[in-house]
Write a structure and sequence with these properties.
five-stranded antiparallel sheet; alpha/beta; Dna Ligase, domain 1; 29% helix; 14 strands; Rossmann fold; five-stranded parallel sheet; globular; single chain
Length: 341
């Protein structure tokens, strides 16, 4: 099969611009599926050969036969969870980059904690009951919501007062680790068994990252509650002495993933960490796909520049993996349970 036989497609949100540009730069035809009224960025930036507008993303379920016929390879990102439920993602006949069966381990905070624990990573404490809260905690709701709704509590009574404002009761109560947030974007290739560190970033969250502009006195008077909704991402370059441990962490996650599901984790993933004052990395979450924190690096990061000496975003790295798999007849290694004609 040839490159021209395939189209790289994704949903118009999250990291689609980067994915589409990367696929275009690698010579693929590109497709973006947008909700009605949301397509202007993709027209303006000229990254898609074809734009399809739908009333809502859930209509993609009815488009699957057409996508299969056109040999579309979908590149997943967090917005896919708005279009498909987990069962549909796992059973869809549409070609899907990566291993869709690892998603159940990402979506469940309980299962992903077991995954990270098996990998020997340092994790924050989890409280089984609000009554056990004995210090700062962060309450995290399930799903890829970009931090929306997360809140802090310090006592059982504080938790009860704040949780009353939420209808979603699927959450974990996690120790709030003091330190600097660091998001590590990796890429694992099953074609050559190599792990790459692609980039680092930190999130800019509203309103927690702007509260520091308000004096403590005014914060108390205004009774401002912290919010962790992500509105953007900022690039980070880490101390070089931290890199060996960062590579070891990523490799252990990959090794364990192969024991969890056949084929294991494929392509991009992110470890979401807190760096303590002792420069220890405490891992609080994993995203088993491309993350929006890679978006500052559409033209590549310092780390991809070292390895490739050409612009290499995570989106383009995905496209190159698919391209290599096509040329070497190894698509089955990067499209787990995907359909190819």
């Amino acid at each position: 099969m040839k490159l021209d036989d395939f189209t790289i497609g994704t949903i118009g949100s999250h990291s689609a611009l980067q994915i589409l540009k990367g696929a275009h730069d690698e010579g693929f035809k590109t497709l973006v599926i947008c909700e009605r009224g949301q397509s202007e960025p993709y027209r303006s930036f000229r990254v898609a050969n074809k734009i399809i507008e739908v009333g809502k993303y859930s209509e993609l379920v009815d488009m699957q036969d057409k996508l299969v016929k056109d040999n579309v390879i979908l590149i997943p990102h967090a917005s896919f969870f708005k279009a498909f439920d987990l069962k549909c993602l796992e059973s869809s006949p549409v070609s899907y980059f990566g291993n869709r069966h690892i998603l159940s381990w990402e979506i469940s905070r309980i299962k992903q904690r077991a995954w990270l624990k098996k990998a020997g990573l340092t994790l924050p404490k989890i409280y089984k009951s609000p009554d056990c809260i004995d210090g700062p905690v962060i309450i995290k709701f399930f799903g890829a919501g970009g931090g929306k709704g997360f809140f802090l509590a310090n006592t059982p009574a504080d938790f009860v007062r704040k949780i009353a404002n939420y209808s979603d009761k699927r959450y974990v109560i996690q120790q709030y680790v003091i330190g600097t947030p660091l998001y590590i974007s990796y890429f694992y290739s099953p074609l050559n068994d190599e792990l790459e560190v692609m980039s680092f970033d930190k999130r800019y969250e509203t309103n927690v990252d702007s509260i520091g502009r308000i004096s403590a006195k005014d914060q108390l008077e205004l009774n401002i509650e912290s919010s962790y909704s992500v509105m953007g991402n900022m690039p980070v370059v880490v101390r070089e002495s931290m890199l060996p441990e960062i590579f070891r962490m990523g490799r252990r996650v990959i090794d364990v993933s192969k024991k969890l599901v056949p084929g294991g984790l494929i392509g991009p993933f992110c470890l979401e960490t807190i760096v303590t004052p002792d420069l220890e990395l405490c891992v609080f979450e994993i995203s088993a796909r491309i993350v929006a924190g890679s978006n500052p690096y559409i033209n590549g990061s310092p780390y991809t520049d070292l390895r490739y000496n050409e612009p290499m975003s995570t989106g383009r790295r995905i496209a190159r993996e698919i391209k290599t798999a096509i040329k070497t007849n190894q698509l089955d290694k990067v499209l787990i349970d995907g359909h190819t004609s």
